[in-house]
Amino acid sequence: MTNTDRIEQVPTVAQSIEGLRDLIDIWDDGEEFVTVPLIEESPLTGVAIRVLAEHAVALTKSIVLLAEHGMFIQAAPLIRLTMECGITAAWFSVAPNAGNAANHEGARQRRLILESMFQDAGIGDEQMVIEATESVRDLAKYESAPAGKFEQRCNQIVGGKDLYVHYRILSQVSHAGLALLDPYLHEVDITSENPIGYAFLKEANYTSAQVSLGYQISMLCLTLTAWDNISKDRPNSSQLQSVANRFGCNRNIELIKPPTVL
Fold it and tell me: How confident is the prediction along the chain (262 residues), in pLDDT tens digits per residue?
């Protein structure tokens, strides 16, 4: 995550795009055959981290295209999703039983969806609901609040609390709410023809574009680091660190230590 103590200034849009392209190249230059390590005697966690990394890279390619066309506010939801990928991949890589906890949460969500679908549509398949309920019960010992809540995953990772603040800021323009009004409105002189003193903008004035793209570099670097950390011989560590040094990103992934009980 971004180490604010080491950043002298926010990178420009052009600098961020260059950094993002460098990270994409590091990933795309990787080996074609992927070996997934066993974590806690299961491939589940490793597969999850790999998929999150692949998705974060794909999101970044889309963000670069949008940024090159000046569509910064449209990229905001993708930057927000990359944050989720980065923190979740980091959490998977260091939290005990994270894969099993996520599996329990997935089973719980599936059960809720099935129950809602059958109830709302007036149809039913009791066996599907029974099987989903059994899956939740079988995995109950792995139930974990951070597996179901992004904020709690942030709170478990060193530096995550500060990141969550910007995540909430991005959330304001990632949903269809009144927060979208400000970027699309421009204050003008009040006249008889325009008594409210505002005009519409064809292109949103997203003032947080530079900061958000800076976070995108940090989050993509974090996601790729999570995969690199569990990979044999950490093949991309030096290249990732080179980009991290340029942009002041902290690649250390650690769980917050619980307070000492006296």
Answer: 444 333 457 999 999 999 999 999 999 987 778 899 999 889 999 999 999 999 999 999 999 999 999 999 999 999 999 999 999 999 999 999 898 888 888 888 888 888 777 765 555 567 777 777 877 787 777 778 889 999 999 999 999 999 999 999 999 999 999 999 999 999 999 998 898 999 999 999 999 999 999 999 999 999 999 999 999 989 999 999 999 999 999 999 999 987 766 6
The encoded tokens of residue 184 equal 């699309």
Q: Is 196 exposed, middle or buried (0-12, 13-18, 19+ CB in 10 A)?
A: exposed
Q: How far, in whole angstroms, is CA 129 from its chain's centroid?
A: 31
Residue position matching structure tokens 């190249």: 25
d(CA 100, CA 98): 6
Residues 197 and 189 sit within 8 Å (Cβ to Cβ): yes
The tokens for 126 are 């009791």
Q: What is the DSSP letter of 184?
A: G
Cα separation, 133 vs 18, in Å, equals: 48
Confirm if 28 and 222 have CB atoms less than 8 A apart.
no
* Secondary structure of residue 2 in the 3-state scheme: strand
Residue 28 φ/ψ, nearest 5 degrees? -70, -20
Q: How far is CA 87 from CA 14, 32, 66, 93, 142, in A?
A: 25, 25, 23, 10, 20
Helix axes 126-138, 98-121, angle to 10 degrees: 160
| Nearest residue to 87 (alpha-carbon basis) of 97, 77, 95 | 95
- pTM of the complete model: 0.89
